Amino acid sequence: MYVRRSAAVLAAAVVIGAAAPAIAADSSPSASPKPTHPAGLYGTTDPTYDGVWRQSLALLAQDTVGVKPAPKAVDWLVGQQCASGAFAPYRADAAADCDAKTLVDTNNTAAAVQALVALGGHDAAVSKAVTWLKSVQNKDGGWGYMPGGASDTNSTSVVIGALAAVGEKPEGIRKDGRSAYDALGKLALPCKGDGAGAFAFQPDKKGKLLANADATAAGVLGSLGKGLVVGPGKQSAASCSDAGDPTPQQTAANGAAHLTAALAKDGHLTSALPGAEDQPDYGNTADAVVALAAFSGADAAAKPLRWLERNSAKWAEQSGPAAYAQLILAAHATGTDPRDFGGADLVEQLNATGPAPQAATKATNEEKTKDDSPFGVWWYVGIFLVVGIGIGFLLSGRKKGPQA
């Protein structure tokens, strides 16, 4: 997901793209000691800003493709939870109590909820996390990255995914009479003018909404009531309309239409990081693939998916587990085999970044899921709201400034 980041995270984002959650500009310490790398954590880079996020995505990816994660990998994630139910990006000393200096946030908490629900057997941890998320809902119905922070599209959408994962109806979770869908509606641009149909991350300092591609991908999923793992939607054209009072479904359609236009020329999104505006944004392109497939079906995401298959290998190798998980998520959403993604076995590559999983389950995805679409069971082979985070997602990641 695109979001405002601290200088340290902005530097990291040059490498990891959209593989980290949304992080507010003032949310990280000015200086942090380099942590000792935990044995159960996926990836080898400093987990200070994305440990829980990347672990959640990795475990979700493994579960979705029928791989049983290593117990110590799951235990590491559960052990990161505070007594309040919230999660921070990373706690070096998980045995110590969380206090006012522990920077818990909605993105990591919501991603952890989705992973733990998928794995099963963690009802107490999930219940505490969801209770905490509800307690920090804003009066406009949405969520910000930090408790009390202004609502943003990426954070609101990843929380919607967590609520949906536990069987809650997001429209029924209200603060001062407003739901998450009310908040998303306020962050959606009209169909006329610059950024037609897109979502903004947040209003700018003047209250203006600026189109943000990764926030749009997150907003489409949020408006559909979807989480980080989705299957392909029904074949339906995405057209932008401002007629009447837009429903969440229409707001999702508007966002999908914006993404379709943004991807039409090159098949990929471009980076919004300062100095990198001419470079492809692999993670946010993967987010867009998921959003388009969720709304309009696999065909709508075919062009950016093919681009990822041809071009994402080096990025994923450099970026690590969250990147592999995002690509698996995109493969799953479109019915593409993640074990033959542009010739690469994404599942094997993900598994190699952390503790060896127990084993692949015997049940295939074909046996576990059925779909009445004409595209067949491959839609269910493989595994973000993350981010953007860092929203970007969304919150991929989910992060930076405005992007058309």
UniProtKB/TrEMBL annotation:
- Gene3D superfamilies xref list: 1.50.10.20
Q: Report the transmembrane regions from the record.
A: 377-395
The answer, when asked if Membrane is one of the entry's keywords, is yes
Where does the UniProt annotation place the signal sequence?
1-24
Annotated Pfam families: Prenyltrans
Q: Which domain of life is it from?
A: Bacteria
Recite the lineage of the species. Bacteria, Bacillati, Actinomycetota, Actinomycetes, Kitasatosporales
Question: Which protein are we looking at?
Answer: Prenyltransferase/squalene oxidase repeat-containing protein
Indicate whether Chaperone appears among the record's keywords: no
Which residue ranges does the record assign to the Prenyltransferase alpha-alpha toroid domain? 55-165
